[in-house]
Specification:
Elements: H1 6-15, E1 21-24, H2 33-40, E2 44-49, H3 54-59, H4 65-82, E3 88-95, H5 100-103, H6 106-109, E4 117-122, H7 140-155, E5 160-162, E6 181-182, E7 188-189, E8 202-203, E9 212-213, H8 226-230, H9 233-244, E10 261-262
Parallel strand pairs: 1-2, 2-3, 3-4, 4-5
Antiparallel strand pairs: 5-10, 6-7, 8-9
């Protein structure tokens, strides 16, 4: 919401028939921006959280949990006052290995807010060795504990959706058969992970040794139309390989390769 034309951009996308959502840390959702958010027609707004207590503030530096909750409550109250169901209020939750205990406090934390979904992600791109300890990728015990925790949150009434590596092989949670990612410079990649702007292969620390990450770009909308990029030979070959289960190197160790689970 730092962009001065944010709400105009939302209206333009809505005018083109799109379903529009955004993710925010909640720090700039102040009283004067709430009416503009409703007037723009935004469909979904997700608030980034990483904990259910002071742990959040330590992990998401520059944010204050109490202010994020205030913003969520303000939005929910205005939605109720207007008699609307949109925008849907989501929580975009980052689950770290050290944050399992803090995550367990979510039901108490969110009891005052009408949250439509809590979408849980893990640390999927570990390109610094000091972050390896926070990844759940190769920690079967940690993954099992996280699954049990999220199942318990679902039983407590939270609409929790997550992907923790327990889906069928070959199914990508990013839905690359119908979705794509356009970078700020117009490059087109199958997902945000394969569109990361790294100049050279980057070592990944939480998968088998010797693995590196590099972007996988199939074209640029400054040079060809989006439809032409999507229908390009190499891009079509990539999607066919995924459907056959012949995973490209870039996807072989990705945690998103499987169906999302819900509860």
């Amino acid at each position: 919401m730092l962009h001065r034309d944010f709400f105009s951009l939302v209206r333009l996308a809505k005018g083109a028939g799109c379903r529009v959502g955004t993710t925010t840390n909640g720090m700039l959702l102040v009283d004067e921006s709430v009416p503009a958010l409703f007037d723009s027609g935004l469909d979904v707004i997700a608030f980034s959280l990483a904990g259910g207590d002071a742990y959040h503030d330590r992990v998401r530096r520059g944010t204050i949990l109490a202010r994020v909750l205030d913003a969520m409550e303000r939005l929910a109250a205005e939605r109720l006052r207007r008699g609307l169901t949109r925008p849907a209020i989501h929580v975009a939750y980052m689950l770290l290995r050290s944050g399992l205990e803090s995550c367990a406090r979510l039901p108490e934390l969110l009891r005052r807010v009408s949250v439509d979904a809590v979408v849980v992600s893990t640390l999927d791109f570990v390109c610094a060795e000091d972050l390896r300890a926070e990844s759940l990728r190769l920690d079967e015990g940690g993954l099992a504990a996280a699954r049990r925790l999220l199942e318990d949150l679902g039983r407590q009434g939270l609409p929790v959706y997550h992907y923790l590596g327990n889906g069928p092989a070959g199914r990508c949670a990013e839905n690359p058969y119908r979705a794509l990612f356009v970078t700020v410079d117009g490059s087109v990649a199958p997902c945000v992970y394969l569109g990361l702007p790294v100049a050279e292969p980057v070592k990944i620390y939480d998968i088998p040794a010797g693995r590196f990450h590099a972007p996988l770009i199939f074209g640029n909308i400054g040079e060809r139309t989006l439809a032409e990029v999507w229908r390009g030979r190499d891009y079509r070959s990539f999607r066919r390989a995924l459907k056959r289960g012949t995973l490209p190197e870039a996807c072989r160790f990705c945690l998103k390769m499987g169906c999302p689970a819900g509860g």
